[in-house]
Amino acid sequence: MPILAIEGATKRFGPNEVLRNVTLSLDAQEIRAICGENGAGKSTLVKIITGVHSADGGRIVIDGQPVEVRNPQHAQELGIALVAQELSLAPALSVLDNIWLGNREVPLFHRRRALRERAQAALQKVGLGDLPLETPVSQLSIGRRQLVELARMLTRDARVFILDEPTATLSDVEIERIFAALRTLKAEGKSIIYITHRLGEVFQVCDSVTVLRNGELVGTRRTDEIDRAKLMEMMLGRALGEMYPRWDSNPGAPMLEVSNLGVPPLVQGFHLTAPRGAVVCLAGQVGSGAIEVLRALAGLAHNASGEVRVAGQAMPLRSVASARTAKVQFISEDRAGEGVFLRLRVGANLVATQLADHSRFGVLSRHGLRAAAAKLAAAVGVDRTRLRSQADELSGGNQQKLAFGRSLGRDDAGVLLMNEPTRGVDVGARAEIYRLIRQFCDRGYCLVMASSDIEEVLGMADVIVSMYRGRQIAVYRRGEADMQRVLADITHPAAA
Amino acid sequence: MTRAVAKLLDPKLRPFTVMAGAIVFLGLLDRGTGYFFSIGTIFSVMQLFATFGLVALGLGLSILIREFDLSVAGIVGLAGCIAVMTGVGNPWLGLVLGLGAGVVSGVIQGLIMTRLHLSSVGVSLGGLLTLQGLTYVLTDNKTVAYPNIAVSLSLNAPIAHLISVRSAACLAVFVVAALAMAYTHVGRDVIATGSDRRAARVAGLNTDRVVIGVFAASGASAALAGVLLSYSLGAASPVALADVLAPAAAAAIVGGVSVVGGRGSPMGIAAGVMTLCILRSGLSAIGVEPYVHDLVTGSILIAIAFLDAPELARRVTAWRLARVERQALARKSS
Amino acid sequence: MSGVSLRSRLRLRGLRARHLVLAIRVAAAAAIAVFALSTPGFTSPLSINALLNAISFIGCVAVGMTFITLTGNIMSLCLGATVSASALVFLASLSLGVLPAFGVAIAFGIVVTAAQGALVGYIRANPILVSIAGLSLLLGGAAFATGGQRIYPGGEGLQVFKGRFAGIPIEALYFFATVVVGQLVLSFTRIGRDMVMVGSNLRAATAAGVDTAAAITMAYVIAGACSAVSGVLLAARYGSGDMELGSGYDYTAIAAVLVGGTAIQGGAGSVVRTLLGVTAIAIIEVVLLLRGFSQQLQYLVTGLIVLAVIMLHTLGERR
Predict the structure, then answer these.
(1) What is the DSSP letter of C152?
(2) Which domains does chain A have, with CATH numbers?
(3) For chain B, which domains are there?
(4) Most confident of A48-57, A289-298, B283-292
(5) Nearest-CA neighbor of C131 among B59, B315, B253?
(6) Which pTM was predicted?
(7) How confident is the model over A411-429, as a mean pLDDT?
(8) Do C143 and B294 touch (CB under 8 A)?
(9) Where are the beta strands (DSSP E) in A72-164?
(10) For residue B306, which residues of chain C lie inside 8 Å, CB to CB?
(11) Which residues, 6 or more positions from C35, have their beta carbon under 8 angstroms from its beta carbon?
(12) Is the ipTM of this complex over 0.95?
C-alpha cells in the first residue's frame, strides 16, 4: 500500500487555477522527483501536502486513510517533514534552537543534553559538524542555512520527507552529502519527495519522477524508463526552442559600462560592457552575486562602489534617484516585496514612476495619468478592464507585466535591469514576457538580466556572463556555450 | 576602546549600560549631598518599579512578537477595580478574579486576532476602550474604596528597608518570566514567532497559540499590576493609570525589545523599567523640577530611537563611501 | 491558519468578497443613521451643535493622524500633546495679533512633528518610540516654559476662531476646511500619492524612485499642522490653556481613523473616511447620551462598537 497518495488535488488562487486534478501515489522507500517548469504547481502541491494551504478539491490519503491536513503542525504529527524552498529558519535564534523549532518532541525544559547531541549528529550528517550550536542563524550564508534546514529535517521522526529545491545554493560536495543523507533515509524505510529543476539530479538520486505542467499531471515514470530528453519534453510539452522568440541580434554602441564594481561582502571586481539593442544575461545561482550586481546598478545597494557609465555619462551609485536620472530602470526579483504595490490599483502601479511627468507644481493630472495607464496596459498586454482592480488580484505573470509596463514609461530607451524576470510566472505568461523583452530590445534598450534558470539564459541571451560566489567566471557570445558549460561555471568552476 | 563601547551598546547589554549610566548621571548631579544615594530613594524606585514594571513586561512581550497590546492600560484599571470590589473579605479572591479578567481579556483579543487575521493595534485599541468602559460601568464612575487596610499596609511595608511585598512580587514575576524564556521552549517559540512568523509556522510551530498565549500573559501581568496597586492604594478608580502606556512602551524599548520583533528579554525590560524609575525617583529626590524628568527621559528615548534606526548604519556607510570617492576624484584632477 | 478556519469559510472569490464588505459597511452606516434619526432630540439644534463641536476638535487631529497611518507608521502618541502645546503657543503670541499668532502656532506644530518625521523618514527610526520621546520632550518643555501655570490670552481677537457663522459653529467650518484641504492633498498631489505608495510597500516605493523620506516627513508635517489648528480652536473656545487640553486625543483619533476604514498597516484609506469615522463615533456618543445611557455605559458601548467596526472592516481583506 502506498505511504502517501494524493487524489484529484485542485487549488485556486483568486482567478488562477494552479492545480487541476492531480493524482499521484508514493510507496515506502521510494525517492520520487517532481518536475515542472516555473508555475507548474509543484510548490503549491507541496504546500497542500504539508498543510500550509488547503486544497479546494481532492483529498490526501495516508496509509490508506483519507486525512485532512489542517496545518503544518498537524502534518508533522502525520509524519510529514518539509524542507521548504523559502527557508523557515528564525534568524534571531541559534542553530540549535532552529533545529528543534516547532518539533513536538521537545520537552518544556529544552536544554537537555540529548537534544544537543542529536542536533550535533544531524549537523554532522550534512557536513556542518564543526558549526557551533549557538551560532545565530542570521550570521550564516544562505547555503549553510539550507543545510541547517536539512539537519532539522533529519531530526524529525517522519516517514515522508519533502525537499523543495534543496540544492539551489549548494556546492557539489554539499550536494553529495544531501544525496548520501537521502539514501540513508531510504534505507531506513522512509519515502522522499524531491522537487527540483535540475534534471541531472533526478537521474542521480531518484527512483521515479512525476511531471506537472500548467497545474496538471503529465505522468509518472520510473527513472530507468526515460531519459533527459523525454523528461524535458514531458515538462515543456513542446520543443525547447518555441518558448523563446527568434531574432537577429544587432547590438549597437555600448550603453552601459561597469568597471570594478564591488558590493560587500559578496561581489568584487565586476566588469561589464553592455550594448544597446542586446540582452546580456548574468547567469548564476542564488548567492552568485548576479542579483546583487543589478541591484547595485539600480542604486539600491548602500555600500556599492565602482565606476559606472551610462551612454558615456558617469552614474553615481548608491542612489535610486541617480540611476533613474541616468535612465536606468529596474525590475526586482522580489515581486511581492519590492516590485508591485499589491493593495493599489493596477493603473496606479503602472504609472508609479511617471508621476513627475504628469504633475505641475506638485499637482497631479489624474486625467493624464489615466491615459498613460491605459497606454501602458495595452503595450504589455494587460486587459484595460483590469485597470481598476487591485494588483493582488492578478496572476504572478500579469503582475510581472505590470513591472515591465512601468519601465516603458519613458519615450527614450535606456537601460533595463531585470532580476529573475520569470520567477513564479506560469508558462503562458513567460512566453509573453520573453516577447516583451525582445520588444524592449528592438526599441534600442540595453537589457541586462540576472537569472538562475539556465534554459532561460541560453534561450534569451546575446551575451552570457557566468558568475559564481561574487565573481565573473566567463563571458560567452550567443552560441558559444551550451547547458553543460554554463552549469559547470556556476556550480563548480575549474579555476575558482 | 571602541570595541568595548560597541559591546556595551550592543542591544543585549544596552539596557544595563543605560541603567548604569542613569545611576552615574544622577550620582554626579547629587554631588555628595546624599539625597540620591539613600535607602529612601531605593525604596521609592522599587515602589515605582512595582507600579508599572509588570505593565511594561506584558507590553514588551507583545512587542516582541511584532504586535502591540494597547489594552494593558485598560486591564490595569479593570483588574484593580474587580479586585477591590470582590476582595474585601478575602484578598486572594480579588487577586484571582482580577488576574482571571486579565487572562480572559488577553485570550479573547488573541482569538480575534488570530482567527480573523486582524492587526493587534486595532483589536487592542477596541479592547482598551471596551475595558475602560467596563471599568466605568462596574464602578459606576466612582472611586471604590478598599477598606481592608491590613492588606494595603502589608503590601507596602518595607522589607529590609529596600523593597516591599509589592515590589518583591513584581521582581519574582520578572525572574520567573526570565527563567521561562531562557530555559523552556516557550521562550524560543516566542522569539521565533517574533523573528519570522511565517518561517516558524512552516517549521511546524503553532504560532496562533503563541500569540494568544502572549496576550494572555500580557493581560495577566497588567492585571497583577493593577490588583497590587489598587490594594496598596486602598482604592480603585476607573482612571487608575491613564498615562501608563507611553512609559511602559518606552521602558520596554529602552529595555532592548526590538520593535521589528525577535529580540528582547524580561531582564532587559526590567532594566529599562528600572532606568526610568531611577530617573524619576532620583531626580525628585535630588530636588530638581519635575519637568527635568520628562526632558531627560525624552532625550534618552530619542537617543535610542536614533541608535536603533535601521537606516542609520546604511546612511553612514553611504556617506563614508561618497567621501572616499570625492577625495579620489579630487586627487585625480589635481 | 488552516483551510477550515472561519476566514476561509467566509472567503469568497475576489470580487464578490469586496462587494460583500462594501455591503456590510453601507449597512453599518445605515444602521447608525437609523439609530440616530430615530432618537428623539437628535435633530435638535442643541444636539447637532454638540455633535459638531465634538467632531471638530478631535476631527482635526484625526485628519492629521490619518496621514501618519497612511504612510505605514501606525500612529503617533504625541499629537495630543502637540495640540496642547500649540494652544499655549497661540495664546502666548496673541500679542502679535490674531493672524500672526495663528501662523506661529501652526509653525510650531509643524516644527515639532517635522523633526519626528525626519527621524522616521530618513533613518527609519521607530515611529512609536519617536512619538513617545516627542511626548516627553513636549511635556517637559511646556512645564519648563510655563512654570506649570495656565496660559491666558496675551491679546485680543479670539473671535475669529469661535462663535458661529451662518448658524454653524466656526470650529466645524475650520474642521471641514481641514478635511477638504487634506483630501485634496492626498488625492491630487504627487506627494500625496507618494505617501500612499510608501505606506503600501516601502521597498517598492524606494525601488520605484519615490522620495520616501520626503513623503513621510510631509505626512508628519501635515499631522502637526492639523494638531495645531485643533489647539488654536481649543484655545479660542476655552480662553485659556494648559497641557491637559489635548490629553487622550491620540487614542480617540486613531480610533476614528480605524473606524473610518483606513488600514492600520498603511497604503489604503483617505481623509474622507476619517471624517466618516469621527462622525460615526460622535453620533454614537450623542445618541447614547440622548437615550439616557449613563456615561459609564456610553464608554462601554462606544468601545464595543469601535471594536466591532474595526473587525468588520478587515474581515474581507487579507492582512
Answers:
(1) -
(2) 4-241 (3.40.50.300), 243-327+411-491 (3.40.50.300), 343-409 (no CATH)
(3) 2-288 (1.10.3470)
(4) A289-298
(5) B253
(6) 0.87
(7) 82
(8) yes
(9) 80-83, 160-164
(10) 119, 123, 125
(11) C284, C287
(12) no
